[in-house]
């Protein structure tokens, strides 16, 4: 599959186009820090920004979007429901609060941040209403395993457009990737560059081979697995570096070498253990 430009998009199961590369803003401070990061990403050519109510920086993201002057229809903005707000009526209220903070008439993608214990089916019904009412272009989930997706499938007619999960060479979720592909769900990688833990001989060797950085090798690996990727950075040079993944392609052999780095290692919580 050829992905050659920063504005190339994946097509979601409802026809909405989502950029393959976005900027994640987890743990980026609201105010000048997040405004600066988002502004620089947009100036670099990024058109997708991923935030969450739980990141507490939606207001700054919205301000950066306004300052950029880029037409709204050219942007793809994602936010996520806070865990404490799961449930039907509470989801509707929380969405309106996120929309107010972002200062946007609609969102491109809204995600259930974590499945939790037992409210996500009820929450999903609120998501369906918001989508039907035109407030969200696509709805999806985050950190859902196959059994969570199967439960949702049994209680809903709407298949999630996206499942955003921890996905990187040390956690190559091959079975989940295949399942989502078979169901028409686009997998999206959070923490794709493993919180900077890139000092692996295979990645170092491939970086030298292709004249790229280990981070760029991993991000390209995501794209070639048809996984949307949203690396986080606040440093202008790193934001630019992360976008330098559209002028080369990893060989099949090198893709498999990265696949083999899998150790089932998580840097974040296991969704089956992160209950609330």
Description:
The chain is an alpha/beta fold and 276 residues long. The chain has ten helices and ten strands. The strands form two sheets. Strands 3-4-5-6-7-8-9-10 form an eight-stranded parallel β-sheet. Strands 1-2 form a two-stranded antiparallel sheet. Helix 5 links the parallel strand 7 (136-142) and strand 8. Helix 7 crosses helix 8. The N and C termini lie far apart (40 Å).
Helix count equals: 10
Question: What portion of the residues fall into strands of 2 or more residues?
Answer: 15-25%
SSE series? EEEHEHEHEHEHEHEHHEHH
Query: How can the largest sheet be summarized?
Result: 8 strands, parallel
List the helices and strands and how they pair.
Layout: E1 9-11, E2 17-19, E3 23-24, H1 32-44, E4 48-50, H2 58-68, E5 76-81, H3 88-102, E6 107-112, H4 120-132, E7 136-142, H5 146-154, E8 162-166, H6 174-183, E9 186-190, H7 201-210, H8 214-224, E10 228-229, H9 236-242, H10 252-259
Parallel strand pairs: 3-4, 4-5, 5-6, 6-7, 7-8, 8-9, 9-10
Antiparallel strand pairs: 1-2
């Amino acid at each position: 599959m050829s992905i050659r430009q920063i504005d190339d998009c994946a097509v979601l199961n409802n026809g909405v186009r989502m950029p393959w590369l976005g900027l994640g803003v987890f743990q980026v401070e609201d105010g000048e820090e997040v405004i600066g990061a988002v502004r620089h990403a947009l100036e670099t050519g990024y058109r997708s920004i991923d935030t969450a109510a739980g990141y507490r920086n939606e207001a700054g993201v919205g301000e950066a979007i306004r300052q950029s002057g880029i037409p709204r229809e050219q942007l793809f903005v994602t936010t996520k429901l806070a865990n404490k707000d799961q449930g039907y009526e509470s989801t509707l209220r929380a969405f309106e609060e996120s929309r107010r903070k972002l200062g946007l008439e609609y969102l491109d993608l809204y995600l259930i941040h974590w499945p939790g214990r037992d409210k996500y089916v009820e929450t999903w019904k609120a998501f369906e209403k918001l989508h039907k009412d035109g407030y969200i272009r696509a709805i999806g989930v985050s950190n859902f395993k196959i059994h969570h997706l199967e439960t949702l499938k049994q209680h809903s007619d709407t298949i999630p457009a996206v499942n955003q999960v921890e996905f990187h060479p040390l956690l190559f979720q091959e079975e989940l990737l295949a399942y989502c592909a078979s169901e028409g769900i686009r997998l999206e990688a959070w923490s794709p560059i493993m919180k900077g833990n890139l000092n692996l001989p295979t990645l170092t060797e491939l970086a030298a081979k292709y004249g790229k950085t280990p981070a760029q090798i991993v991000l390209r690996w995501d794209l070639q697995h048809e996984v949307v990727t949203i690396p986080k950075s606040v440093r202008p040079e790193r934001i630019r570096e992360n976008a330098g993944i559209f002028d080369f392609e990893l060989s099949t052999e090198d893709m498999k070498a990265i696949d083999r780095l899998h150790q089932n290692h998580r840097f974040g919580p296991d969704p089956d253990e992160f209950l609330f």
